[in-house]
Amino acid sequence: MYERKPMIAGNWKMNLSLKEAAELIKTIRNGIGGVEGVDVLVAPPFTHLGRVREAIGDSGIFMAGQNMHWDVSGAYTGEISGRMLQEATCTHVILGHSERRILFGETSEQVDLKVKAATFLGLIPIVCVGETLEQREADQTFEVIRTQLDLSLNNFKADELMRPSTILAYEPVWAIGTGRTATPAQAQEVHRFIRGWIEENFNTGSAAQVRVLYGGSVKPENIADLMSQPDIDGALVGGASLKGDSFVQIIRYKEGQSG
Ligand code: 13P
Description:
Layout: E1 7-11, H1 18-31, E2 39-43, H2 49-56, E3 62-65, H3 82-87, E4 92-95, H4 98-103, H5 108-121, E5 124-129, H6 133-137, H7 141-152, H8 154-159, E6 167-170, H9 184-201, H10 204-209, E7 211-215, H11 223-227, E8 234-237, H12 244-251
Parallel strand pairs: 1-2, 1-8, 2-3, 3-4, 4-5, 5-6, 6-7, 7-8
Bound molecules: 1,3-dihydroxyacetonephosphate.
Residues 11, 97, 171, 176-177, 215-218, 236-240 line the site of 1,3-dihydroxyacetonephosphate (13P).
């Protein structure tokens, strides 16, 4: 069976001063010494990318943008292009986060354009999907996830190609910032569904290799149980990634790495 390398990613959202960001990276660097077999990524605010890159140094921590526009340049006041993220040394970009979809009206069609542009540039997209509480209670979870995937990854479908480096994130909206985590079984069920969708639309190779992260109130207390599920390949962490100690504990979730 193909072994997917776990990834623990911190989405800082609109938080931290420059100084706090540099200190947080320092704590993470000190805390992850000797940890192997886990990719670590942080997604700072745009204005922090330069300083964070300096702080990351040679530690191997990956850096992502939290969003981007699909065009390379142009009259788009307030926007950032994928090329700009690359110049700022980002290797990844989070796309279609529910906060962008819900608070800023981003559609799956726009996410699709962004995914296409990022992939073209060689930036690895971390594409987020997730249902609201209302949708879950109405038993629409799978339908909602399928539609989000179909529309947000439409260009992959048209090309009949999904690069194995692509990362997906299942973030149930009702679990984000609420302290209410999906149970490992609830998360696994949706992750399994997402992997099935990849297999159905592409091939077993992509389905085996694409990492699917879970996001929504991930904490040091629940990470190990989530990671024990076969289709959960990592975590996209919000609040608990802002504190060095808790983020390091999440990264060191495997037994034997806590010392
Ligand atoms: P919390 O970990 O704060 O619930 O946020 C999750 C998230 O939205 C990560 O992208």
